[in-house]
Description:
Helix 3 (69-85) crosses helix 4. The strands form three sheets. Strands 2-1-5-8 form a four-stranded parallel sheet, covered by helices on one side. A two-stranded antiparallel sheet has the order 3-4. A two-stranded antiparallel ribbon has the order 6-7. The chain is globular. It has helices at 24-27, 40-43, 69-85, 120-127; strands at residues 2-6, 34-38, 53-56, 59-62, 90-93, 104-106, 114-116, 132-134. By secondary structure, it is of the alpha/beta class. It has one domain (2-140).
Amino acid sequence: MRILVSACLLGLCCRYDGQSKQNDRVMCLAEKHELIPVCPEQLGGLPTPRPPAEIKNSRVISNLGRDVTAQYEKGAAEALRLYDLLHCDCALLKARSPSCGTDRVYDGTFSGALIPGQGITAKLLSQHHVTVLSEETFESFF
């Protein structure tokens, strides 16, 4: 299978804080599958590092109060384009991210509280009938 994967899960330092979230279980997928790294935030033009952002009232707002929804939407569109261009079979994205969260995201208060919902990229991919998994749920799929 060809899998679109959040780049931070593959050890790339592209998260908002300039760090990675390398996941060894995800990395092991490379033994049997082709992994395609993607960072929608960077594809949308945001720098690394960057202020943290959360979804509030369908907008993505940084902790400095800047609306970065347009960048998140652009990055999501580019991730979908990459998925289609490379004929991927599914997407494995970073849980809880305002871009990649698959079933829960932070509530927009920067308090650490989670609410049901999807990140901007996960939602767009799902709307295009892409199977979207997270590092917390993928193992039951493979």
